[in-house]
Design a protein that fits this description.
The protein is an alpha/beta fold and 339 residues long. It has 8 helices and 12 strands. The longest helix is centred in the C-terminal third of the chain and has 57 residues. The radius of gyration is 41 Å and the shape is elongated.
Length: 339
């Protein structure tokens, strides 16, 4: 019985001491504010200064007692900011206000046909552009609407944008290689690469990882075998395959025409051996060499033809002279016979 009473007294004393400590703590002023921002990899579209400015919007918290600060209200206010996904605040034992901010991660920048632009995060939430910096995410152009809320077809399309943008953004290779995604009128996607001048027909947003894996495998083989600039279109819509279309006759003709014009300019200026400067593509240089060879062959043929014509003229002139001389001798012989 006595032991139970002692335990009760000990418990009551502990509670009283804890309560007194809490009261003493709450009566102290906030000593400082520490901000930690997570949820992003390479960029902060909201920084520590922005957070502190929001917290101290009405009054400097470091001049207020802990008990006078409504942490829940501050959390709610912070989460109204478009770039803040979640906010948690608490005081540590030194009366320092610890602020934990989870920033929204943009996965794409949208350009609509109406001319507006905005970011979207991994949950499809629209985010405003930032004056601080531009997020390193793929650009999706030609989105059909800037309305809020979107229609059902546009909502489905936006979901595809989010999924494709997330796959590109979260992969270091694709984030560096794909700079733009064009949205077709049929609500499908075409990828515009940084390296290579071909169009990559992606189709809809189904089987994203499989399509990108197939494309990556093709890249590794194509760069080694032919070079990526040998193709004008890559179609990755089909399962487990990449349909590659090589540059056709029109592309070769274009390069040849450009090379021909350049050679003409070089020949006109008296410089014909600087063909390596004509174009950065192997096709153009190859065609330039062929054109040079053809021009030189034609030049030689022209020389031979000119020489042949000149020789023919000489033979004709010689024959005329001989014939004329023969006529004079014949006339003299006839006169002698008459005499």
């Amino acid at each position: 019985m006595i032991v139970n009473v002692l335990w009760l007294l000990l418990g009551a004393g502990t509670i009283i001491l804890f309560g007194a400590a809490m009261i003493q703590k709450n009566n102290k002023n906030c000593s400082d504010i520490k901000v930690e921002i997570t949820g992003v990899d390479e960029h902060l579209l909201i920084d520590e200064k922005d957070v502190k400015d929001l917290i101290n919007k009405n009054a400097d918290l470091t001049n207020k007692q802990v008990k006078q600060i409504d942490l829940k209200a501050i959390e709610t206010e912070l989460e109204k900011t478009a770039w803040v996904k979640n906010a948690e605040l608490f005081f540590d034992n030194n009366q320092v206000l610890q602020v934990r901010i989870e920033e929204r991660q943009p996965v794409a920048r949208i350009f609509t046909v109406q001319g507006s632009s905005f970011y979207i995060d991994s949950a499809g939430i629209r985010l405003p552009l930032s004056d601080k910096l531009s997020a390193r995410v793929p650009m999706f152009t030609n989105f059909p609407s800037d309305k809020v809320p979107l229609s059902t077809p546009d909502s489905l399309l936006m979901k595809g944008v989010v999924n494709l943008g997330r796959s590109i953004t979260y992969d270091s290779f694709w984030r560096a290689q794909i700079e733009q995604v064009y949205i077709t009128p049929q609500a499908t996607f075409e990828l515009i690469p940084v390296i290579g001048d071909q169009t990559i027909v992606f189709g809809d947003a189904s089987d994203i990882e499989s399509k990108l894996t197939n494309l990556y495998t093709f890249y590794k083989k194509a760069w080694v075998q032919n070079g990526i600039n040998a193709y004008k279109k890559l179609d990755i819509r089909f399962r487990n395959q990449v349909v590659a279309t090589r540059k056709g006759a029109e592309a070769v003709l274009s390069d040849s025409t450009k090379a021909n014009a350049a050679i003409y300019a070089l020949m006109k200026g008296g410089v014909i051996n600087n063909l390596a400067k004509l174009d950065s593509t192997g096709i153009a240089i190859k065609d330039a060499a062929q054109i040079k060879k053809a021009l030189l062959i034609k030049k030689d043929k022209n020389k031979l033809e000119t020489k042949r014509i000149q020789n023919t003229k000489k033979r004709i002139n010689t024959f005329s002279i001989v014939k004329k001389s023969g006529s004079k001798k014949e006339k003299q012989l006839n006169n002698i016979k008459k005499d």
